[in-house]
Amino acid sequence: MKAVITVTGKDSVGIIARVSTLCSQYNGNIVDITQSVLSEYFAMIMLVEIDQLSIPFADFADKLAEEGKKCALDIRAMHEDIFNTMHHV
Amino acid sequence: MLNVTDILETIGMIREENLDIRTITMGISLLDCVSEDENRLCEKVYDKITRKAEHLVAVGCDIEKKYGIPIVNKRVSVTPVSLVGGTMTPDGYLKLAHTLQRAAETLGINFIGGYSALVHKGMTQGEKNLISVIPEALAETQLVCSSVNVATTKAGINMDAIRMMGSAIKRAAYLTRDNNSIGCAKLVVFANVPEDNPFMAGAFHGVGEPDTVINVGVSGPGVVAAAIKRAGDCNLSELADVIKKTAFKITRVGQLVASEAAERLQTPFGIIDLSLAPTPAIGDSVAHILEGMGLESCGGYGTTAALAMLNDAVKKGGVMASSHVGGLSGAFIPVSEDAGMIAAVERGALTLEKLEAMTAVCSVGLDMIAIPGDVSEDVICGIIADEISIGVANTKTTAVRVIPAYGKKEGDSVNFGGLLGYAPIMPVKPYSPARFVARGGRIPAPIHSLKN
């Protein structure tokens, strides 16, 4: 199972480091990252394997959201199924 | 498989366009709670509801986190209580209302529906007892919702029941006069009521349903409005396609959530209700969709046509996205719960008569409409009879949820707060249907009900 982590907000130093540190801390394996910066606006999408997470996924999502709040970023972790279901028949 | 555009589209729908799952509603049968002893019956009802739905809220919150989509309400609907409390006195029914309230509080759900009776052809003494205390029950509880089905296309219209409901609505308004007559917001009068509707205030668990069931109501007026805006000046065929595709995506998420909730709660999945349910939040309005389609104001000429097209396209898009569709399934047009409808009423574009016409082509009926507190019982009965006739003649569900706000007159407004919103008091014609209503009896079923 994979989750999609999206990070959006004003660009600053160390955003990817913050998110990947949390992934590593809770045993989420990052399998793909795509990111762009458009006139100071940062957008990153990260695909993470969540089968071996050391905490429940809901708590993991909360930790990421909290981290986002600390640095004025919107960080969301969502199970990949919502995207697959919505966009693929 | 996943691509960035799809991911950003989904995130945008949730974050900017208010996409949410409006409700996960667990239907629970109370037929095995019947008892001659009122206290014993209440005890069995409380135990069964709190046992079956014990994990409903926790599972709902967990799914919300897993998929990152808000699930606004977690609710329970039960068998119409008149079917389990057939021998009950009015006092017994009141006790039962408090029991339902207590169960809802224990579970932490938003509403519990099913304080209901099905009286489209006639009434038992038990049903009369129930209807006689609905106003008190709604005044003394906060989370209990009530509905009464007074007509079907097969049975015709029970005018005696409508008379009782006219009186119940007025009394509920009086008893909750210190709180904007909010009792009436929890009371719906139906024709052709669906038995698997997850939306309040009209939800109950029908007699043909399994012991427990999970029904899900999706939402997403904001998503449809945004898609229409992006489509620009396309023609109506193209616009219908845009709406269909959007409804498909919204409903797929509903199906995902419903399947997961059903599995985790070890409860059969019932249906997805394909309704565009608005909220008073900006950007979550059905009226604004209609205006986005090209109307200067909702309520102006062209509104019924636009709404008919919207309703049809939503169903066509949604039906392929879900394994079972049911409930009300259509665009809702509650006035107080829709910022665009409120604005249309305030500018004088949207009247009671236009709303009645709109209900012929969409879901439900005259919903969350505040009228002057001095409107007579007879006039309310006339409003109900008209609306119910539209449902009966067109073989569709219609309903009336009007609030004759005590002490308020045209030009005033009432604020219910939360999802129930705010409503300007709408003018009502004073001419009396008293003699017509007082005849009582039944309006016979229409000829096209004889299909066998």
Count all strands of chain B and give the number.
14
- The CATH class label of chain A is Alpha Beta
H-E order of chain A: EHEEHEH
The coarse silhouette of chain A is globular
The helix content of chain B is 40-55%
Q: What class do helices, strands and sheet pairing of chain A give?
A: alpha+beta
Radius of gyration of chain B (CA) equals: 21 Å
Main sheet: strands, sense, barrel of chain A = 4 strands, antiparallel
Tally the helices of chain A: what do you get? Answer: 3
SSE series of chain B: HEHHEHHEEHEEHEEHHEHHHHEHEEEHE
The termini of chain B sit apart by 50 Å
CATH fold assignment of chain A: Alpha-Beta Plaits
Top-tier CATH class of the largest domain in chain B = Alpha Beta
The rounded Rg of chain A comes to 13 Å
> Biggest sheet of chain B, open or closed, and with what strands and sense?
12 strands, mixed
Q: Going by CATH, what is the homologous superfamily of chain A?
A: ACT domain
**Unreliable stretches covering 5 or more consecutive residues of chain A:** none
**Oligomeric assembly:** heterodimer
Describe the structure in your own words.
The complex is a heterodimer of chains A (89) and B (452). With 89 residues, chain A is an alpha+beta fold. Chain A has one domain: Alpha-Beta Plaits (2-Layer Sandwich), CATH 3.30.70. In chain A, 36% of the residues lie in helices and 39% in strands. Chain A has helices spanning 15-25, 57-70, 81-87; strands at residues 2-10, 29-38, 41-49, 73-79. In chain A, strands 2-3-1-4 form a 4-stranded antiparallel beta sheet, sandwiched between helices. The mean pLDDT of chain A is 91. Chain B is α/β, with parallel strands linked by helices. Chain B folds into 2 domains: 27-191, Anaerobic Ribonucleotide-triphosphate Reductase Large Chain (Alpha-Beta Barrel), CATH 3.20.70; 216-437, Anaerobic Ribonucleotide-triphosphate Reductase Large Chain. Chain B is built from 15 helices and 14 strands. Chain B starts with a helix and ends in a 9-residue tail after the last strand. The interface between A and B is medium-sized, with 25 and 22 residues.
